[in-house]
Amino acid sequence: MGVTDIDAMVSRKQWDRVQRCIALGTGWFVRPTVFVGVTNDMQVAREEIFGPVLCVIGTRDDEDAIAIAADTVYGLQAGVHSADLARARAVASRLLAGRVQVNGLQHEPMAPFGGVRQSGLGREFGLAAFLEPRTVVGPAQVSWRSTTSDSGRATHGSTKPSAFSSRVRPGQSIS
């Protein structure tokens, strides 16, 4: 088979028609997109996109990365990846976001979920609406304390925060 050259559509009207037909066949699918060479002052880095879009912003060191992460009005989720788990946990503990993922995309369905700043106030799955607890999820060695009811049975979804989520604050170690 030979090489086929494809030119631009003949008009905007035709382009729109083709795009509508593609949408019928693919639904609302968006191809994952990675932007490299992004700086923190670019619009693509400043907005909460809510789609399969990743911006790669280079940093000099951990302090620079933490400063860049703090330079936003949003705070739904953050992620830290490192071969050094202690280093990743130290950086994660300093990030202000509703949920911080460490070395992956773990999901804990019983953990409170929500953002900080303009990404929301309050949490789904329990805690009082005006608290701002954080969830740090990842391979960690954390001592968990159960909340118990008057009957002595463990309870879930209590308005009383767990020892982990209520006491982890930016700048505080989670070990």
Largest beta-sheet details: 3 strands, parallel
Structural class: alpha/beta
> What is the CA-CA span between the terminal residues?
60 Å
Order of helices and strands: HEHEHEHEEH
Q: List low-confidence stretches.
A: 142-149, 151-169
Please indicate the percent range of residues in DSSP E strands (runs of 2 or more). 5-15%
Give the rounded overall mean pLDDT. Answer: 76
Counted beta strands: 5
Report on the architecture of this protein.
With 175 residues, this protein is an alpha/beta fold. The protein has helices at 12-26, 43-46, 62-70, 85-92, 163-167; strands at residues 33-35, 53-55, 77-80, 99-102, 135-137. It has a domain at 59-167. It is built from five helices and five strands. The strands form two sheets. Strands 3-4-5 form a three-stranded parallel β-sheet. Strands 1-2 form a two-stranded parallel ribbon.
Gist of the model:
The chain has a domain at 59-167.
Helix-strand layout with pairing:
Elements lengths: L11 H15 L6 E3 L7 H4 L6 E3 L6 H9 L6 E4 L4 H8 L6 E4 L32 E3 L25 H5 L8
Give the tags.
two-stranded parallel ribbon, 5 strands, 175 residues, three-stranded parallel β-sheet, alpha/beta
